[in-house]
Amino acid sequence: MVFGVGAILTGTVAMVTIPTMRDQAKVLVEVEPRIRESAATFLERSTLTTSIADDLRNVRYADVMKSSRATLLTMSTRLVEILAYGVAAVFLAFYIMIDRDRLRGALFAVVPRRHHLRLSAVLLNLVTIVGGYIRGQVFTCLLMSGFILLLLLVCRMPNALMIAVFGGAMDLLPYIGIFLTMAPAVLAASVKGPTIAAIVFVLMLAYEEVESHVLMPLVYGRALRLPPSVVFFSLIVGTTLAGIAGALLALPIAAAVLMLIEELRVELPGETVRPEDIEQRQKDERTEREYERRAESLPAAEAAAVAAEISVDRKNADVATEKAESDAKEAPLSSK
């Protein structure tokens, strides 16, 4: 039902928006010289950007296309591969969802029972991390598209839908996404004059700040829980190793690595044993004894279900404990 409703909604949105986006893309191509001239005129006002304005005026797309034909062919092939992988991932997710219990039982059958609880906790946290990250990205991209569309419509800008869709897609990219999101909207607004362009720029910049400091923590919540230093280092490493794909996957991978270190109780160099760690190990031992008692002589699939149930109960208890501790810390501040 979920996949069916999702497919119907996606098809309906595509039927409504794709023709409009195609028409608006044609119009954007036609008015592109005027937008480029307006941007060049604006850049000419400063001696520091005069050379950029000249280069912008002298762009010859035919020469660029000839020199980058091989690159375009490679990008087209890569795009087809991405679409094929995307379709395959959808059907694979559908199969896994339908046959979840048997697949989980097969996985637990090849893992020793003393590791079942750890495996169940890791799988549960991976679902939280990956699912939360994907939902957060989709939600923030939709909000970005909606904001750009509303802003451009209020400013009575043509081709608002195409620019909004492009801006929402570019919002996926960390750090550089802000430039690729704002630039098309500001350039399109420059046709209406510098005042409208400045208004669009200021409002877009304000929304980017709100998204970074308010929406992102609220949307992702407990899914990632990464400190800023780890976020910055992960993005640098991911971008260096795998480009854009590495930048997109860097945060969930970093969150998964930190989660594995925590769940597997890996002792890092220089780390001292705290009373909380000893208490956590004792709790782990009690939970493992409970699992052994409940899953004794059960087949792998049923034992996996018991491990999953215990892991969910344990996670809910940890969340409730953290919430109670947070409320206890905030109570004296609120009373003051």
Describe what this molecule looks like in 3D.
- With 336 residues, this protein is an all-alpha fold.
- It is built from twelve helices and no strands.
- It has helices spanning 2-43, 50-57, 61-67, 69-98, 100-109, 116-154, 160-170, 177-189, 194-220, 228-263, 275-294, 300-335.
- The mean pLDDT is 80.
| Radius of gyration, in angstroms, nearest whole number | 26 Å
Could you say which overall geometry the principal axes of the C-alpha atoms support?
A: elongated
Percent of residues in helices: over 70%
Q: Give the low-pLDDT segments.
A: none
Total helices: the number is 12
Q: What percent of residues are in strands?
A: under 5%
Q: Class by helix and strand content?
A: mainly alpha
Largest sheet: none
Mean pLDDT: 80
Distance between the termini: 51 Å
Oligomer: single chain
List SSEs in N-to-C order. HHHHHHHHHHHH
The strand count comes to 0
Main features:
336 residues; mainly alpha; 83% helix; 0% strand
What does this entry show, briefly?
This protein has helices at 2-43, 50-57, 61-67, 69-98, 100-109, 116-154, 160-170, 177-189, 194-220, 228-263, 275-294, 300-335. The chain is mainly α.
Secondary structure: elements and pairs:
Layout: H1 2-43, H2 50-57, H3 61-67, H4 69-98, H5 100-109, H6 116-154, H7 160-170, H8 177-189, H9 194-220, H10 228-263, H11 275-294, H12 300-335
Helix pairs in contact: 1-2, 5-12, 6-7, 6-9, 6-10, 6-12, 7-8, 8-9
